[in-house]
Amino acid sequence: xxxxxxxxxxxxxxxxxxxxxxxxxxxxxxxxxxxxxxxxxxxxxxxxxxxxxxxxxxxxxxxxxxxxxxxxxxxxxxxxxxxxxxxxxxxxxxxxxxxxxxxxxxxxxxxxxxxxxxxxxxxxxxxxxxxxxxxxxxxxxxxxxxxxxxxxxxxxxxxxxxxxxxxxxxxxxxxxxxxxxxxxxxxxxxxxxxxxxxxxxxxxxxxxxxxxxxxxxxxxxxxxxxxxxxxxxxxxxxxxxxxxxxxxxxxxxxxxxxxxxxxxxxxxxxxxxxxxxxxxxxxxxxxxxxxxxxxxxxxxxxxxxxxxxxxxxxxxxxxxxxxxxxxxxxxxxxxxxxxxxxxxxxxxxxxxxxxxxxxxxxxxxxxxxxxxxxxxxxxxxxxxxxxxxxxxxxxxxxxxxxxxxxxxxxxxxxxxxxxxxxxxxxxxxxxxxxxxxxxxxxxxxxxxxxxxxxxxxxxxxxxxxxxxxxxxxxxxxxxxxxxxxxxxxxxxxxxxxxxxxxxxxxxxxxxxxxxxxxxxxxxxxxxxxxxxxxxxxxxxxxxxxxxxxxxxxxxxxxxxxxxxxxxxxxxxxxxxxxxxxxxxxxxxxxxxxxxxxxxxxxxxxxxxxxxxxxxxxxxxxxxxxxxxxxxxxxxxxxxxxxxxxxxxxxxxxxxxxxxxxxxxxxxxxxxxxxxxxxxxxxxxxxxxxxxxxxxxxxxxxxxxxxxxxxxxxxxxxxxxxxxxxx
Length: 726
Known about the structure:
alpha+beta; Multidrug efflux transporter AcrB transmembrane fold; Alpha-Beta Plaits; four-stranded antiparallel β-sheet; 23 helices; 63% helix; elongated; membrane
C-alpha cells in the first residue's frame, strides 16, 4: 500500500492542476445535482417487526377512514387568564376568534374546538383544539404554519396563553449553519498555532471542505431515492468535517517533517503520502468498517445512517491522499517550518529525541497508568444506570412553543396525556365481542399506573376495538415502560381466558420497542468491532499485546463517554453549562453510534502514535526509546488532531435540538478521553511497563498474518537499494 500511495503522491504533485480542478469539478457537479434535487430527509426512526409496529399496522388497517395518507394535526392549547376558566364568556370568545382566524387556510381539512371534543382539563382552565390538514404532517407548508403562528400570536397579545403541539413540527432540525462555521474557525486557529503558518493551516481546511461538499451532497442525492432520517446527514457533516481536517493535518505535518530532514519537495510529498497517507487509509477504512458494521443491528435507519457516514469518510480519505499532495505541490517550500537560529558553540541537546511529557511518563509509568484508569473508571460509573429513549417535546427548551404546550397538557390533563397508549383488542369472532371488549378494557383500566382508560371503540367489522390508556406518568418515565410490559404480560392471560388478542402501540410504545431493540443489538455490535480491532491491529503492529492494550483502552473510553453523557443528559448535572433544557433519557441510538464512531477514531490515534513507536523499535530495538520517539514525533500532531475533533464536535453541543446536542457532547468528550487520557497518557505508560514484550509475536502467527505496511518500510528499503547502486 505504501508503494502505491508513494506513486500516487508523485502523480498528484506533478499533475496538481488537473487533480485540483478535477476535484473542484466533481464538487460543482455534486452540489448542482444535490441542490437541484433538494433535501428529502423524511425517513422515520422505526424498526419493522417490533410489537408496536405490528399493532400500528392493525390500527391503520382497521380504523383508517380513507385510502389516502393521514393528515397532519396541530393541537392549539389554551390556558385561561388568571381568575377565569375556558368556560368564561370572554375566554370562549377569544378561542372562537382564534380558531376562526386559523380556519381561513384552505389547506385545513377540519377544526374541532375544545368545547366540541370535550378536550378540557380537570380544572377547566386548560384545553386544546385539534386542527387536521389535508396533507401529511411533513408536507404541511411553511405558509400554513406561519398562518397558525400569526393567529396564535394575536391570541397571546389579548392575554390568552396559546401554545402548539401535535404531529406538525414548528421547530425544524438544524442542518448546516453556525455550528459548522464555529468548528471550522476553531480548527483553523488550532492548525495555525500547530504549524505557525496560515498557509499550512489553510490546506487541511480547504481539502476537508472539498471532501465534505462532495460527501454531503452525495448523501443528499441518495436521500431522494432511499428513506433517510435527517440524522444521517448531520452525522455525515460531523464526521466528514472532523476526519477531513485531521487526515489533511497528518499528511501535511509529515510533509513538513520530510522537508526539515532534507528531502526535496516532490520526494517529501511522495514520502508523506506513503507513510502518513498509509496510516490515513488504514484509519479511514477502520472508521468505514465500523460505521458500515452498524448494519449488523438489522435496524434500517441505523444501517442507512452508518452507510451515509461511512461514505463521507471514504470521500475524505480519497481527497486526503489525492488532493492534499496536489495542494502541497502548489505550496512547495513556502510551508517549510522555520528553523531556529543556532550558535556554533551551542552544545548538542541531550534530549533531542524526546519531550518533557514523554520523559515524565516513562519515569513514572505505573502511577500514571493507575491514575488514568481510576479517573476514567470513576467517570464510567454513571453508565451503570443508563436509560435510553427518544427525547420528546418535553426535552426542548422552554422558549419553544412545543415545550410550553407539552407542559400545559401535563398540567391540565396529567403527565401521561403526552404519551397515551393505544390498545388494540382483536377478537376471533363477533359473537359477544362487545361485551368481551368491555370486560378486557375494565381489567386493563385497573392496572397500576393507569390514570384513565376510554371505553372500547369498535371498528366497522365489530371484531377489533381500540382502548386509549393514559398512564399516570410521563412517556420518559420507567413506570410508563413498566406499564407497557405489564399490559403485554397480561395479554397472554387475556388471550387464554377471553380469546382476545391484546396489542400495544402509540408513540410511547414505539419508542420503548426501538430503545430495547437497540440495547439488545449493542453487545453484538461491540463484540464485532472489538474482534475486528484485535485482528487489524495485530496485522499492522505485528504484536499480540499492543492490540489487546488498544482494545482495552477503547472500552475504557467508551464506558467513560457513556458515563459522562448519563451524568449530564440523564442525571441533569452541569445542565446549565451545556444548555440542556431538561434531564431525560439518553438518545436510544447514541450508545451504539458512539461505539462505532469512537472505535474508528480511537484506532486513528492508536495507529499514528504506535506506528512511530514501532518504526523506532524496529530501528533501535529499544522499547523505552520507541515510546519517547512516538510521543516526540507524533504526540503534537495527535494533540492537534484531537483538539480539532473536539472543536468540531463541541460546536454541535450548543444547537437547540437535544438529539444533536447529545451527539456532539458524546463525541467531543469521547475524543477528549481517548486522545488525551488513553492514547497520550495511559497507553505510553503501559507500553513502557511492557517493555520489549509489547512487540512479541509468535513466529507461527507472524507467518500467517499478512503484512500491512503503514510505516513506509518498503519505500525506505527501495531508497536504500537505490543509494547502494549509486
